[in-house]
Amino acid sequence: MRLRKKHFAIPEMTENPYVFFNGQENKGKWKEVFGNDNPIYLEIGAGKGTFTIESAKRNKNINYIMVDIETNALIYATRKIIDEELTNVRAMPINAENILDYFDKDELDRIYINFCNPWPKLRHKKRRLTYPRFLEKYKVILKPKSQIYFKTDDLELFEESLDYFKDEGFSTLIEDFDMKLEDYPQNIVTEYESKFRGLGEKIKFGVFEHYVN
């Protein structure tokens, strides 16, 4: 569902020191931006930021970057960075298509993709964030032996994504078609996950390792 246009979003985020509209300038320099050598985790399609914000609160020794093309949602995520005084979070309103413009080779330690658009129509599947053309880009910016964490409610997307990851040379570490909360006590339930669980949908969860010969 598309959010109503928030005319204040971009002006407000422009004043936020933790938001980068010209993030290309930081390519290869993100450790300098954070001012430490801690691991860098990226969430693609962060929405209102529930996952990244809670993750950053729990793990102060990890740096987080959240990106989303939808500024109407990201404005709420970026407010939380300030409200929670989280110095280990940065944000960029960008299109994942251009991810290679923002991160250098082997710069990231992990990528999260939570409840992305399933794009079920055949002609649209290439837009999926797990589609091979995206995975090729992720392999560039991820360090060897790093992982992609993927959650979705959509069965077709999950099943086809398993093939995408396999075809692109990723090793499957976790493949769970019915993610029980009791089995993952560290799981952070996002707004979408709560909604889908409330509807009785099974949550699919996978962890895939970037394997390099």
Give a quick rundown of the structure:
The protein is α/β, with parallel strands linked by helices and 213 residues long. The protein has 7 helices and 7 strands.
What does this entry look like structurally?
The structure is a single chain. With 213 residues, the protein is α/β, with parallel strands linked by helices. Strands 3-2-1-4-5-7-6 form a 7-stranded mixed β-sheet, with helices on both faces. The protein has one domain: Vaccinia Virus protein VP39 (Rossmann fold), CATH 3.40.50. It is globular and about 40 Å long.
Give the SSE map.
Layout (H helix, E strand, L loop, with lengths): L8 H6 L15 H5 L5 E5 L5 H9 L4 E5 L3 H13 L5 E4 L15 E7 L17 H10 E11 L2 H13 L2 E7 L14 H8 L5 E7 L3
The CATH top-level class label: Alpha Beta
CATH architecture: 3-Layer(aba) Sandwich
Characterize the overall form. Answer: globular
Assign a percent range to the helix content: 25-40%
Radius of gyration from CA coordinates: 16 Å
* Estimated structural class: alpha/beta
How many independent structural domains? 1
Average pLDDT across residues? 95
Q: Count the strands?
A: 7
Q: List the total number of helices.
A: 7
- Identify the CATH homologous superfamily: Vaccinia Virus protein VP39
Secondary-structure element sequence? HHEHEHEEHEHEHE
Query: What is the straight-line distance between the termini?
Result: 41 Å
Strand composition percent:
15-25%
Any low-confidence stretches, pLDDT <50, length ≥5? none
Largest sheet: 7 strands, mixed
Pfam families: Methyltransf_4 (PF02390)
Family: Belongs to the class I-like SAM-binding methyltransferase superfamily. TrmB family.
Keywords: Methyltransferase, S-adenosyl-L-methionine, Transferase, tRNA processing
Binding site for substrate: 121, 153, 190-193
